[in-house]
Design goal:
Elements (H helix, E strand, L loop, with lengths): L18 E5 L8 E4 L2 E10 L9 E8 L5 E7 L3 E5 L2 E10 L4 E5 L5 E6 L4 H12 L2 E10 L2 E12 L2
Antiparallel strand pairs: 1-6, 2-3, 3-4, 4-5, 7-8, 7-10, 8-9, 10-11
Length: 160
């Protein structure tokens, strides 16, 4: 063994899978699951008894984390389901362009300009109103399976 030190920057997107397997019987309410190739937050789980063919079934009801659509799936509890890697990152809002894109400040001082304003009207008006008033705003961006969307807003006070 060599006594050199190796430093690896862990970024989960370098060829890493967008999902990981988890046994259906272990997925709980408020967890995440992939239903019809969409990342969903589990809002309801019910398990049926084993039938004559020997598998208990899990019935999942999930809400798509990006479109808020309700999706359902039934999976044998002993089978594996895909669970999305869901990340939340906070960015400071710098600017809003006329075409609906936002400019965000990342931790390392770069800007991130590839995100649109959220489609949720309540959140959208909070962001636009707060920005118009000159407040310092921090947006939470949820990312899963190659998609990103602004999901929350924090007001950190007026600009100096």
């Amino acid at each position: 063994m060599s006594d050199e030190e190796h430093h690896f920057e862990s970024k989960a997107d370098a060829g890493a899978s967008k999902t990981y397997p988890q046994q259906a019987g272990t997925i709980r309410k408020n967890g995440y699951i992939v239903i019809k190739n969409r990342p969903c937050k589990v809002v309801e789980v019910s398990t049926s008894k084993t039938g004559k063919h020997g598998h208990a079934k899990c019935h999942f009801v999930g809400i798509d984390i990006f479109t808020a659509k309700k999706l359902e799936d039934i999976v044998p509890s002993s089978h594996n389901c895909d669970v999305p890697h869901v990340n939340r990152t906070d960015y400071q809002l710098i600017d809003i362009s006329e075409d609906g894109f936002v400019s965000l400040l990342t931790d390392n001082g770069n800007t991130k300009d590839d995100l649109r304003l959220p489609t949720d009207d309540n959140l959208l008006s909070q962001i636009k109103d707060g920005f118009a008033e000159g407040k310092d705003l921090v947006v939470s961006v949820m990312s899963a399976m190659g998609e990103e969307q602004i999901c929350a807003l924090k007001d950190i006070g007026p600009k100096n």
